[in-house]
Design goal:
Blueprint (H helix, E strand, L loop, with lengths): L1 H4 L2 E6 L3 E6 L3 E7 L2 E4 L5 E4 L1 H4 L9 E4 L2 E2 L2 E2 L2 H16 L7 E6 L5 H13 L4 E6 H8 L10 E6 L4 E7 L2 E8 L3 H16 L1 E2 L2 H11 L10 E8 L5 E7 H7 L1 H17 L2 H10 L1 E4 L8 H9 L3 E3 L6 H11 L8 E3 L2
Parallel strand pairs: 1-9, 9-10, 11-17, 17-18
Antiparallel strand pairs: 1-2, 2-3, 4-5, 4-6, 7-8, 10-19, 11-12, 12-13, 14-15, 15-16
Helix pairs in contact: 3-4, 5-12, 6-7
């Protein structure tokens, strides 16, 4: 009977952000997956938004970094501390241990899955389940995944692009490539360094991507001033950056992402491929919001692509729906047992 009262939590444990969903309440938490740690004592000093503000601005004895790398746990101890903090913050005063459902990339190994479940249990969960991201993204985007119809879903976050064809509640063909939002930011920073001798941090590079970035060259370009440090004089300097420059800067990374999509299309059984041509490709995740990304996919694959409503929240909304209907989605849920 206790499990009936046990609170439920859905967690989208991303490389860049952690989102927490409370059934009945919706998304209750959306914070960067960043932790600030003291170098000497290894003590966790700040987590989430507070820690992100410290990136690139800390004295030597404090390091602010992401314990998740490419969607999987890179630093186990720190991830556990981060999970505990987010679970407590989401549940506020509730003394009962929650049932937790966590998202993992499509390409994770069973060892990586176990690590996520273990971290959630140690962070205070009563029960922990993991579900692959594309399945959750599809559920959150409102796709009827249990029907005998092929649906293609692309979930692009900070660390990975997950591409999957789903039919009858399971994944028929999938691919997970470690090239996504963070790689785009790095490519933009590298371009500014090469082109303008300007050094910028990851936060500035991300801002450029969001404000003026595009997946294909645009006729009516956007532009923005970018501040950084001149690598020649060592002094602060501002340059004007335009959309088409960004499209050029991230070209190689975008090609890698498109290749991941093509590989899955090539593995898809013909019957399901015809469904995908009819239904188009659904895009979810923060990085899928890059301007004209669906257009780029259509140009390269010939299949229509569209952005899911509230693309950024699809995975975490999927965790909430899956928690409310655990029996329906049994097939796609991997439990701790």
């Amino acid at each position: 009977m206790a499990s009936f009262f046990s609170p439920k939590l859905g967690i989208d444990l991303g490389t860049t952000n952690v989102l927490v969903y409370l059934p009945g309440k919706g998304v209750v938490l959306n914070e960067p997956s960043v932790v600030a740690v003291s170098k000497d004592t290894k003590k966790v000093l700040a987590i989430g938004a507070e820690a992100k503000r410290m990136i690139g601005r800390t004295p030597e004895e404090i390091i602010a970094y992401r314990p998740m790398k490419d969607g999987v746990i890179a630093d186990y101890r720190v991830t556990e501390a981060m999970l505990r903090y987010f679970i407590r913050k989401a549940l506020k005063w509730n003394p009962l241990r929650p049932t937790v459902l966590v998202s993992v990339p499509a390409g994770v190994t069973s060892t990586e899955k176990r690590a996520v479940i273990e971290a959630a249990m140690k962070a205070g969960a009563k029960d922990a389940f993991v579900v692959k991201e594309p399945i959750l993204a599809a559920i959150g985007a409102g796709i009827p995944i249990n029907e005998p119809v092929g649906h293609m879903i692309i979930d692009i976050g900070g660390g990975t692009i997950d591409v999957a064809v789903i039919s009858l509640g399971g994944i028929v063909a999938a691919n997970s490539v470690k090239c996504a939002g963070n790689k785009l930011d790095a490519a933009i920073a590298e371009y500014l360094k090469r082109q303008y001798n300007l050094a910028v941090g990851e936060k500035t590079a991300e801002e450029v991507k969001i404000k003026v970035g595009a997946a294909v060259p645009m006729n009516e370009e956007l532009s923005m001033p970018v501040k950084g440090r001149d690598l020649v004089t060592g002094l602060p300097r501002t340059v004007e950056v335009r959309s088409n420059e960004v499209a050029t800067a991230i070209g190689r990374e975008l090609r890698e992402m498109v290749k991941a999509i093509k590989d899955v299309l090539q593995e898809t059984p013909p019957e399901l491929a015809s469904d995908i041509i009819d239904n188009g490709i659904i895009m979810t995740g923060g990085t899928s919001q890059l301007r004209h990304f669906p257009e780029l996919i259509f140009r390269r694959t010939g299949v229509r692509a569209k952005l899911a409503p509230e693309a950024y929240y699809c995975v975490v909304k999927g965790t909430g729906i899956a928690l409310s209907h655990l029996d329906t989605y049994k097939k796609s849920i991997i439990s701790k047992r």
